[in-house]
Write a structure and sequence with these properties.
The complex is a heterodimer.
Chain A: E1 4-14, H1 18-29, E2 34-38, E3 52-54, H2 58-67, H3 72-79, E4 80-86, E5 96-101, H4 103-115, E6 120-124, E7 127-133, E8 136-142, E9 146-155, E10 164-167, E11 170-173, H5 185-191, E12 196-203, E13 206-208, E14 218-220, E15 243-247, H6 250-258, H7 264-267, H8 281-287, E16 295-300, E17 307-311, H9 319-326, E18 337-339, E19 342-349, E20 366-368, H10 378-396, H11 410-421, H12 445-456, H13 461-483, H14 488-495, H15 505-510, H16 516-522, H17 531-542, H18 544-561, H19 579-588, H20 593-598, H21 604-626
Parallel strand pairs in A: 1-2, 1-9, 2-6, 9-20
Antiparallel strand pairs in A: 3-5, 4-5, 7-8, 8-9, 10-11, 10-19, 12-19, 13-17, 13-18, 14-15, 15-16, 16-17
Chain B: E1 8-11, E2 20-26, H1 30-37, E3 38-40, E4 55-62, E5 65-75, E6 86-92, H2 95-108, E7 111-112, H3 117-124, H4 130-155, H5 158-182, H6 192-222, E8 224-229, H7 236-244, E9 262-268, E10 271-277, H8 287-302, E11 305-311, H9 318-329, E12 334-339, H10 349-355, E13 360-362, H11 371-383, H12 397-418, H13 423-441, H14 448-457
Parallel strand pairs in B: 1-7, 8-10, 8-11, 11-12, 12-13
Antiparallel strand pairs in B: 1-2, 2-6, 3-4, 4-5, 5-6, 9-10
Helix pairs in contact in B: 1-2, 4-14, 5-6, 5-13, 6-12, 12-13
The chains are: A alpha+beta, B alpha/beta.
Chain lengths: 627, 461
């Protein structure tokens, strides 16, 4: 085919989903001429599955994206129809925000932001091939015959690569929601020796709200006092829409069991690996036969639509079976489907082929972000997107990559898990994946990352000022509480008893059930700082012991993490390294000792051999220099 | 979890009787820890900073009691043997003092070093020259396969099975806690009081038991240690001479002749028995002897059996009651050896049995009468009636340390849960406990092989 010259860019981002958006914005905001390629500009920022952003651990990711200067938090704050802080009954590490989104509004908001970003262009088209020369990316080719030149490419193709939708015995080549898939790029990647795997995910039916009887369900409301995702959003007041809770029952399960032979999963028609944490309703019924009922949440898809999302009921059973078991659920007896639940299979890469900056190990300048890396979830995609965007620019600038540590951010844990360990099912972020989660709280995401975002050039003055203000307020209030002795009167007011030896206000705050607000009130403070600041201070003081414990663990973690390994090293050269370890290290090319130790199949013994070997090299080097 | 760069301590000189014993503390917090037990003679100011590589005279205190007078030197990183911050404490010889000081340090949180660990650090910090490094690398190359096999064999053992089982219990509980956290809308709240806590308490007890078995394990490895206690001049040294059949201890009529603890080994049923001869117990103003008396108490503390020697030609004295009370209080089994039965007896076995509820053996040290019976009784008391083969026993000090840490973490976790602290905090303790158990089964990041090489080749400490 004869390609015409379609133009020259610094950076081309393929795909305008949640990863592609953050990547493209980061690229343009960092001063690079960026092209965002999408199969369809109407599906920019599409949420093909649940109408919500955030949740446990995912909410942390959104705040981290925000702290680095990303867009997801601001856009959902502008358009959510309900918001809730989850896990408030549990400790500060696992408080998580979740918002119900107005899907269409979110999309148009995002599109508007992209359209109004300098240096950013949006273009419709399917990228069919990559132009690589001497192991370096030079551009991309499109289905309509354009050859686009660029210095770096970010693939954020989501679930669109060779995607196939399956509903019972029916299946067809298609992207989500009837959108077309991308059928050429997989082959191009394979030709470049990139290993692909096949994953599967699914989504429940959407139904007509008018066909539901909400009086038989339990309404679920948002928080009265709205805490936004973005540190920039300030106070928000908005009417919120409720969700509804209902349950499956024995009759539901019976219908599923009777028809299980018609499930493409059980008949073997679906070959892709599905996520364990997001099982279809038939999965739940088969795997947990003793459960009498399962929770079902009914969530609005937006303010201007009657479509409702039925969370907990994803399925790939035939349409007629779906309708009949959906109708067994209280409040859904007369349900009318607008969209049938389906399973979708797609190609993604084995992320172990990437470096920690999300760049392909063998093709310089080719970055990957989002579901193509085997993750799932809008937030996981967004976090990878912004990091890939940042690192693509760093690559263009010929500067050191930005790699977040497992002790710095959930986004760091996410990338390290994917790249170091790989994944055999769609990867979802969870708070228990983070070893140092008491340090990686959602309330301090800005404290952790804003400075870095500023350094990179993504955090603007307004955001930075806001961060500096909060940081100073937190520090000054904390030191005030720690250094002010508690007067007897305050002690008695707050605890009912007099002081127990010399105590500071911080000591009083450490007692269970006492909050920073009460302490400040008892002190007679007239103007209280924002709740955001009070909460951070309270957490830092109340959980000090555990925070210290985790900081100590981080110190130990860092000692291995800081020992860098050469990327172009031939591990087969090291005698005494077991063959399995040689192969694993050779293919993984870890960037430091800590990462090497996390590779499965590499034992502590192998790590010892590595340590000794590289120490020996280093000593020899310095001996030579002396001579 | 890596313990590669935490602070460690160990005795650097050979264990046994020497004039001086040197204790080394190495790691980032070496000085911080040392300053918590070492009080310089000239400067009692808290903010006192030692000059590197200068020797300071000072005292070691534990719980407000004087342990020993020592010399301390601080080496600032990287100018030290290990290349890290390092403190040396030179204390009086004999194994008791060094043991006590090490115990003080461990209590503060300093980890007992593995054999060879100081050298390993020296190497990793580039303090050993190229040829030594070469040798070390070769050893590792040769041994990593063998070591892996050895570890695998151990992993199939009874101990590993038990630890893995414990880990599984913890994993279950943690999984339940985490599920509730990750999926708040599913109402999967783990029932802490009714479900998790009883299991955790049971586990804590089990680990505690296993940890305690280290004492038995140590007995098997190191033998029985016997403290000889009693007033001056009741014949403790003579008893030693009777056992070993030679003039080991200085015997004289001057009370208080024995001032230091003397260790001897005697083999009975293939079990080495070590005797800690102590200075006579009596209140004294003599400073050196006072330290000696302190040591008697310490010897009793660490003994597996206390032999209290009485002179049957003399009435019971308040000091006897004091020794008895001290030993009783510290939990070691006691035997009374009623000595000098060749003299006119003022004390009889019956009288003693009425007074003290412990076995009493009549001996005459001077002519070796009753000695064998006494030894058999010591053996019986130390080993217990069940013999040695019973139950699971910890023999490796690394295992013992890991279990102790796991136990502590578990205790912290239980207290946290009991006090109603948030699950995400309590889970930090439980994760810790798991990781420490993992150090035994090798399921966490740890340099077992490199440790073993230095252990095996004893490249110094």
């Amino acid at each position: 085919m004869n390609y015409y010259n379609g133009g020259t860019y610094d950076l081309i981002v393929v795909g305008a989903g949640h990863a592609g958006i953050e990547a493209a914005l980061a690229g343009a905001r960092m001063g690079k001429k960026t092209l965002l390629m999408t199969l369809n500009p109407d599906s920019i920022g599409l949420m093909p599955c649940n109408p919500s952003i955030g949740g446990t651990a995912k909410g942390h990711l959104v705040r981290e994206i925000d702290a680095l200067g990303g867009q997801m938090g601001l856009s959902i704050d502008a358009t959510f129809i309900q918001i809730k802080m989850l896990n408030t009954g549990k400790g500060p590490a696992v408080h998580s925000l979740r918002a119900q989104a107005d899907k269409k509004q979110y999309q148009s908001f995002m599109k508007r932001v992209l359209e109004n970003t300098d240096l950013l262009e949006i273009r419709m088209g399917e990228v069919t091939d990559l132009w690589v020369e001497n192991g370096r990316i030079k551009g991309v080719f499109t289905a309509c015959g354009a050859k686009l030149n660029c210095g770096a490419v970010i693939l954020a193709t989501g679930v669109y690569l060779k995607s196939r939708v399956i509903i019972g015995e029916f299946s067809q080549e298609s992207g989500p929601s009837g959108l077309s898939g991308a059928n050429y790029l997989s082959n191009a990647l394979r030709r470049m020796d990139i290993t692909l795997q096949r994953f599967k995910t699914g989504t429940p039916a959407r139904v007509d709200a008018r066909s539901l009887d909400f009086s038989k369900m339990i309404p679920q409301y948002g928080d009265e006092k709205i805490i936004p995702f973005s540190f920039l959003s300030g106070k928000i007041e908005r009417d919120q829409l409720p969700c509804y809770l209902t349950y499956t029952n024995e009759r539901t399960h019976q219908i599923i069991r009777q028809n299980i032979h018609r499930s493409p999963l059980f008949s073997g028609q679906i070959k892709g690996t599905g996520p364990r944490y997001c099982p279809s309703i038939e999965d739940k019924v088969v795997k947990f036969p003793d459960r009498e009922r399962h929770q079902i949440f009914i969530e609005p898809e937006g303010r201007l639509t009657n479509e409702m999302y039925i969370q907990g009921m994803s399925s790939s059973l035939p349409e007629e079976v779906q309708i009949s078991f959906y109708r067994t659920i209280p409040g859904m007896e007369h349900v009318r489907f607008t969209r049938t639940a389906y399973a979708i299979e797609y190609d993604c890469i084995d992320p172990q082929q990437l470096k920690l900056n999300l760049e392909c190990r063998d093709i310089a300048g080719l970055f990957m972000a989002g579901q193509i890396n085997g993750s799932s979830g809008y937030e996981e995609a967004g976090a990878q997107g912004i990091l890939a965007g940042i690192n693509a620019v760093r690559y263009l600038q010929q500067r050191e990559p930005i790699i977040l540590g497992r002790d710095q951010a959930y986004a760091g844990v996410l990338v390290d898990d994917l790249v170091t360990k790989g994944t055999r099912e769609p990867y979802r972020m969870m708070t228990s994946r983070a070893e140092y989660r008491l340090l990686l709280r959602q309330d301090n995401a800005d404290i952790r990352l804003c400075e870095l975002g500023r350094e990179i050039g993504l955090v603007d003055q307004k955001r930075y000022d806001r961060f500096m203000y909060k940081k100073e307020m937190v520090e000054s209030l904390k030191s005030k509480l720690e250094n002010t002795p508690a007067k007897a009167a305050i002690c008695i007011t707050l605890t009912g008893t007099g002081p127990n030896g010399p105590q500071t206000l911080a000591d009083i705050l450490r007692r269970p059930g006492i909050h920073a607000k009460e302490v400040l009130n008892a002190m007679g403070e007239r103007e209280l700082p924002d709740d955001e600041i009070l909460d951070s201070v309270e957490t830092e003081i109340k959980y000090e012991g555990y925070i210290e414990k985790q900081k100590h663990q981080v110190e130990q973690f860092r000692s291995l993490e800081n020992r860098k390994l050469p990327l172009d090293f031939d591990y087969t050269k090291i005698q005494g390294l077991r063959i399995e370890a040689q192969q694993k290290l050779q293919s993984a090319k870890p960037e430091n000792i800590g990462q090497a130790a996390r590779i499965s199949g590499v034992s502590p013994a192998d790590i010892s051999v590595l340590l000794i070997f590289f120490e020996k090299e280093r000593t020899m080097q310095s001996e030579k220099e002396k001579k | 979890m890596t313990d590669e760069f935490d602070t460690i301590c160990a005795q650097a000189t050979a264990i046994g009787n020497g004039g001086i014993a040197i204790i080394r503390i190495s790691g980032q917090k070496a000085l911080e820890y040392a300053k918590q037990i070492f009080i310089p003679k000239k400067n009692k100011n808290k903010d006192w900073q030692p000059r590197p590589r200068y020797m300071y005279l000072g005292e070691i205190h534990s719980d407000g009691e004087l342990v020993d007078q020592v010399l301390g030197v601080y080496f600032c990183a990287p100018h030290s043997y290990t290349g890290e911050d390092l403190v040396e404490l030179h204390c009086h010889g004999g194994i008791q003092t060094a043991k006590i000081i090490l115990a003080c340090l461990t209590e503060l949180g300093v980890r007992p070093a593995q054999p060879g660990e100081f050298t390993k650090r020296a190497f990793l910090n580039g303090k050993i020259d190229i040829s030594a490094a070469e040798a070390v690398a070769d050893q590792i190359n040769a041994l990593s396969e063998a070591g892996a096999k050895m570890a695998a064999r151990q992993m199939q053992g009874e101990l590993a099975k038990n630890i893995v089982r414990m880990q599984n219990i913890l994993t279950d509980i943690l999984a339940e806690m985490e599920a509730g956290i990750e999926y708040p809308e599913e109402n999967l709240e783990l029932e802490i009081a009714g479900e998790a806590l009883p299991k955790l308490r049971l586990l804590e007890e089990e680990i505690s038991c296993l940890k305690e078995s280290f004492k038995r394990g140590k007995l098997i490895k190191e033998g029985i240690s016997v403290a000889l206690a009693g007033r001056p001049n009741v014949g403790k040294s003579s008893l030693l001479n009777a056992i070993f059949g030679e003039e080991r201890a200085i015997v004289s009529d001057i009370p208080g002749t024995t001032r230091d603890v003397i260790s001897e080994h005697y083999l009975l049923h293939s079990m080495p028995i070590q005797f800690l001869d102590t200075a006579g117990m009596r209140q004294t103003k003599d400073a050196i002897e006072k330290i000696g008396v302190e040591r008697t108490y310490r010897a009793i503390d660490s003994a597996s059996v206390v032999v209290m020697v009485l002179d049957c030609s003399e009435d019971l004295q308040p000091e006897d009651m004091a020794v008895y009370a001290y030993a009783k209080q510290h939990g070691a089994p006691i035997i009374i050896a009623l000595n000098k039965t060749d003299l006119i007896a003022k004390l009889t076995v019956q009288q003693i049995k009425r007074q003290f509820d412990v076995p009493c053996i009549e001996i005459t040290a001077r002519c070796r009468r009753g000695i064998d019976i006494l030894l058999e009784e010591i053996y019986r008391l130390a080993i217990g009636d069940g013999g040695l083969q019973e139950g699971l026993v910890i023999t490796n000090s690394r295992h013992a340390y890991a279990l102790q840490q796991a136990n502590q973490a578990l205790k912290d976790g239980i207290i946290a849960l009991e006090s109603g602290i948030d699950l995400d905090c309590a889970s930090i303790d439980l994760h810790d406990a798991w990781r420490y158990l993992g150090e035994i089964t090798g399921q966490t990041l740890n340099e077992q092989i490199i440790d073993r090489i230095f252990e095996k080749f004893c490249l110094g400490k």
